[in-house]
Specification:
The complex is a heterotetramer, with two copies of chain A (162 residues) and two copies of chain B (166 residues). Chain A has 162 residues and is of the alpha+beta class. Helix content of chain A is 20%, strand content 28%. In chain A, strand 1 and strand 2 form a beta hairpin. The radius of gyration of chain A is 16 Å and the shape is globular. Chain A starts with a strand and ends with a helix. The radius of gyration of chain B is 19 Å and the shape is elongated. The chains are: A alpha+beta (162), B alpha+beta (166). Strand 4 of chain C pairs parallel with strand 3 of chain D. The structure holds adenosine-5'-triphosphate (2 copies) and magnesium ion (2 copies).
Chain lengths: 162, 166, 166, 162
């Protein structure tokens, strides 16, 4: 299984529709402070079903939608789609290619799609359960989180791996 | 004692010791199960960078902490690979020698794991086969460009994206 | 309401707004006293980097957070200077443009305040009139040497100390 | 008032007696991970009377004394001396030059000296009270501490400055 492409529109600083292709191997993302690099990480985390606002550095759904800036108006919806090659069936879905999409509106409402079919959050969570490890996405500033955990808390990292 | 957990633990512990020594270019480290008979047992980390005596984890430097945590991450990824791993500035505290060793470790694993690395560090960038530059326009909107390695200038500590002529 | 505190607060708030705009090369920020009538009132920070709308502090990037905190530090130092200030890697999250502005701010204040900066960043080092290199010998013992700027190589993101010939 | 010189022996990684001269202006300290840069910051904090082990990244007095390494034996004492120009009498002591010295032994015992006179910890704290602000020493990783504080906690930074 591997990531193919991420499409972002209206999520945080991505006022412009943005497409990021992920070849195999190592992809690096660089740029000035505040340009949107960690927002890309947040977009991946969010589309995979993250429900904790603090893991996304915000407090409510509205914070995730482009709030406007300069001369540009705020938008009404955030949308992120992650397209995954699933030929090896790592994800429990019978498709060679899986596109997970999530939308949020200022009302706080969320919508979820698997290959264009509208589904519930739990369908997304079930579909992505092979990816649900605590070490797939390492947020900025949290690399040494494993060291600050109490020994009992560390155990859960291993339970993910087991 | 959950024997699947026990198996996973000992595999990760083995990989962790090896990854630590590779990343530090020396030294030793271990993962210790506090109470092997308890299924609630916590996991302790003993880290001994090259030339140093065994000391409490809190005495480690910022860069040593980062690298020790990365060694644990590498161990977990080797025992139970995830198809991809996104790392946001895990190299922020590392000196140049450690950045080089981190880069080699990630390259070696990139055969089986797709890495997305957010970084300001030119040394880390050299591991990448694909490079994206993110910039901010005056409306607070992000713009992403595919860039080449020669468009990055290491100029006073963090990379800067430049236009190249021709 | 403690009037000495009120005076200090408004002086710091004024310096903070100015320091923020200097360090970010634009944008605005304010310190807000939640309840001016209460002597227990908390202090809120509103930070708006250039081109961005006012947003919760938590949405700021790592580098933006560092720089905002430094702006507050600068404000406190200007209102109530301490004779010296030791800063350990406050520049770790900053991109190159922000490192340059930080360096200029510190240079300007170094007339009245003695700064000791621990850093891996070559851009920050350029603010220094005195430079010490710390290295570790095989016994885990530190050794400190006075070094010259030309003995530092910026090689893949963090500085490295080299011997120069002659 | 300004710092003149720091002398360190036996404190953390300073197995060798080390003297650091501080000219006016900006001094930068560079070097590899784990070489001892933050230990210099800790030495300054400690000699000024820091009593919190966590602010020094350790748990007990013994952790502050060189524990040995490679072929070299542990030492029995940590000693740090900070020499300060006090011509402007910022410190409430009638000397143009003040040397604050602190020693710790493996027994946990501490000794304090002002210009070679043995004193108590509270004499050091009184002597250095003009320096006791929460923004004189910024530890690694804590630059944005002021932002993570709750608004009520932030107030104490201003009370230091007032
Ligand atoms: N909903 C939103 N609308 C507009 N801007 C937003 C929104 N959410 C976050 N931002 C902006 O995104 C910026 C942070 O972006 P991000 O964290 O991706 O930066 P970064 O490139 O990782 O920078 P650094 O190198 O400092 O870590 C902040 O300036 C914040 O104001
Ligand atoms: N009492 C002691 N005896 C021997 N070594 C010690 C003692 N206390 C701390 N150390 C060592 O000091 C090292 C950390 O030093 P320090 O924090 O100064 O590094 P640093 O130069 O700031 O590195 P970084 O760039 O990673 O922040 C650790 O390796 C630790 O083992
Ligand atoms: Mg970031
Ligand atoms: Mg350090």
């Amino acid at each position: 299984m591997y990531l193919k492409r991420l499409e972002i529109q209206g999520f945080k600083t991505f006022a412009n529709r943005t497409v990021i292709e992920f070849p195999l191997g190592v992809t690096a993302i660089v740029g000035p402070n505040g340009s949107g690099k960690s927002n890309v990480t947040d977009a991946i985390r969010w589309v995979l079903g993250e429900q904790s606002f603090s893991a996304l550095r915000c407090r409510r759904t509205e914070d995730l939608i482009y709030s406007g800036g300069g001369k540009r108006a705020a938008q009404g919806m955030a949308e992120v789609a992650l397209t995954i090659d699933n030929t090896d069936r790592t994800l429990p879905l019978d498709f060679n290619e899986v596109t997970i999409m999530r939308r949020s509106f200022r009302s706080g409402e969320n919508e979820y799609f698997l290959n264009k079919n509208k589904v519930r959050l739990r369908d997304i969570q079930e579909a992505t359960s092979p990816l649900a490890s605590s070490y797939t996405l390492i947020n900025q500033g949290l690399v040494d989180a494993a060291l600050t955990l109490r020994p009992e808390e560390r155990r859960s990292l291993f339970e993910d791996a087991a | 004692m959950n024997s699947r957990f026990a198996q996973t633990f000992s595999a990760v512990a083995e990989e962790f010791s090896q990854a630590f020594t590779r990343l530090f270019g020396g030294g030793t480290a271990q993962l210790i199960l506090n109470d092997p008979n308890s299924s609630e047992s916590g996991i302790d980390i003993i880290a001994q960078p090259p030339g140093k005596r065994r000391q409490p984890l809190s005495l480690l430097s910022g860069g040593e902490r980062s690298l020790t945590a990365v060694a644990l991450l590498v161990a977990l990824l080797k025992v139970n690979p995830t198809p991809f791993c996104v790392m946001d500035e895990v190299d922020a505290a590392l000196d140049e020698a450690n950045v080089v060793r981190l880069r080699e470790q990630l390259l070696e694993m990139s055969q089986h794991t797709q890495f997305v690395l957010v970084t300001h560090n030119r040394g880390t960038v050299e591991a990448a086969s694909t490079l994206y530059g993110v910039t901010m326009n005056p409306d607070g909107a992000s713009k992403i460009l595919s860039i080449r390695l020669d468009q990055l200038v290491d100029d006073g500590g963090a990379v800067r994206i430049v236009e190249t002529v021709g």
